[in-house]
Amino acid sequence: MTDSLYDPELTPLLQMSGEHIGQYPTAEERLAWTMFLLDEVKQFLSAAEYADYLAGIKREIDARQATGG
Predict the structure, then answer these.
(1) What is the domain count for the chain?
(2) How would you write the pLDDT of the chain (69 residues) with one tens digit per residue?
(3) Given CA atoms 25, 31, 6, 59 in this order, what sign does their dihedral have?
(4) Is residue 19, in this structure, part of any structural domain at all?
(5) Residue 1 domain flag
(6) Does a structural domain hold residue 5?
(7) Which domain holds residue 16?
(8) What pTM, to 2 d.p., does this model score?
(9) Helices of type H across the chain
(10) How many CB atoms lie within 10 A of CB 30?
(11) What is the pLDDT of residue 69?
């Protein structure tokens, strides 16, 4: 993964979404909105692409958890 992703249209939208999601008081609400975003992406991918996408997300989450970050 890269830490330098930037798109002039997408970056501000995702930053704003992250800010809003982060302000929900419970982990369950934050998770629900995160899953909503995944569902929005899913409709534009084939089943195989979506499976690869989820596997990549899981891999990145596992790596972050392993390093405490």
Answers:
(1) 1
(2) 667 899 999 999 999 999 999 999 999 999 999 999 999 999 999 999 999 999 999 999 999 999 997
(3) positive
(4) yes
(5) no
(6) no
(7) 10-66
(8) 0.81
(9) 10-22, 27-42, 47-66
(10) 15
(11) 78
